[in-house]
Amino acid sequence: MKLFFASDHAGLNLRRALIDHAVSLGHEIADLGPETSESVDYPDFGNKLALALASEPEAHGVAICGTGIGISIALNRHSHVRAALVNDVTTATLTRLHNDANVIAFGDRVIGVETAKDALTAFLNTAFEGGRHQRRVEKLSPTS
Ligand code: RB5
Questions:
Q1: pLDDT of 73-86, one tens digit each?
Q2: For residue 129, which of 9, 34, 49, 135 sits 20 to 30 Å off, Cα-Cα?
Q3: Whose alpha carbon is nearest atom 3 of ligand 1?
């Protein structure tokens, strides 16, 4: 799977660790930055990730900031994005099964690296369940 990664400065370390993890699992990576720990604004990188997903709808995203909250809010303002802030394997799995989430978000200041790796693996290995969840997901982005 093609994966876009983006964070702010507070998510830099976890982003790097998760990129290495995703590469080790055989996924194709596009890193949207930032490249240094200089302070940046999480909406800029959330919006950058949303634009990348608009151009490649089959891809998924990994978004990280200090709490995971700010970058999730930025991403979810885009109607084609369903960004899920997760803290464990259970929520990572369920958000694929039930929400068809196309972005997994983490808080670098909240979650441990090993837990985040396990959650990312679960997210990438789980397919959307469809059925009644399809109707609910469609209602997340009403067309009128
Ligand atoms: C940056 O200090 C911090 O506010 C940001 O990473 C994030 O936690 C915001 O939601």
A1: 999 999 999 999 99
A2: 49
A3: 66
